[in-house]
Amino acid sequence: MREESVRLGLLGKVPLGTANRDFRNYGIALIVFASIALCLYLDADATLTFQNFLGVCAWVFLFALLRGESGLVRAQVLVAVAFATIGEHFASPYMEGYIYRFHNVPAYVPPGHGMVYLTAVALARSELFKQNLKVITATVLTAGGLWSLWGVTIAPQGDMVGALLFIVFVLFVLFGRSPGVYLGAFFVTTWLELIGVSCGTWRWVPIDPVLQLPQGNPPSGVAAWYCLVDAVALGVAPAVVRGFQRVHTAFWQQYFYPQVVPRLLFAPYLQQDYIPVLVPAIWP
Hints:
Elements: H1 2-8, H2 18-43, H3 48-66, H4 71-94, E1 98-100, H5 109-124, H6 127-131, H7 133-153, H8 160-175, H9 179-198, E2 202-204, H10 223-264, H11 279-282
Antiparallel strand pairs: 1-2
Helix pairs in contact: 2-5, 2-9, 3-5, 4-5, 4-10, 5-9, 7-8, 7-9, 8-9, 8-10, 9-10
Keywords: Membrane, Transmembrane, Transmembrane helix
Transmembrane segments: 23-42, 49-66, 135-154, 160-176, 183-203, 223-241
């Protein structure tokens, strides 16, 4: 069962019945897909101040969507946001592989990566994906393959980079630890990339600055970059959770419980053995 859960990307099931959980999964996907379209449309000709306002709204949406998620999923989102933000600043302002309107990283991008990851997880654990994973895999690989073929043969702006990225994406799907998440990422990232470049919110440069090969706007295999973020989140988050638990335990047992609790009970000299065991009641 555990192996199946990992393969499907079910790393953070919310504690609800199947019907309610699926309603939540589809709700997350619908909200994020709609939010992406609205945000990128509004930012197409907005001021920097309004762009920052969109960033505040994105953080609010992300925190709201995380309510009801497990601690592991929240940790995964945290890792995804941190890793993707570093990657954004390296790839865009520094390397200029793609360029935003203000030559910055918009304020809504970091929380946006969190919502993109959460959507991929929600789709992966939905009944639609669980029951039709092979069909969805075949559909995605066929569509992505045709897009890559178009990019290297017909597209006015050649897309060799996109074809290479698509190969990486295929490897993620076929051999990755959570193909359902990567397939979910394909849908949401293709959606946001096509809308983003169509609205002029950002553009991919014709020649990749690292490989010195032509790339599309966007590259056909762009989902591979987001799959990298997902893979890091899936791999690192458990260590983050364990680290937090160790820090919490050490703080409680070594400082808060022996030193702070007696003072809260107005008994600074009371022996620790006589203090009620409050840990299970306060922190299950």
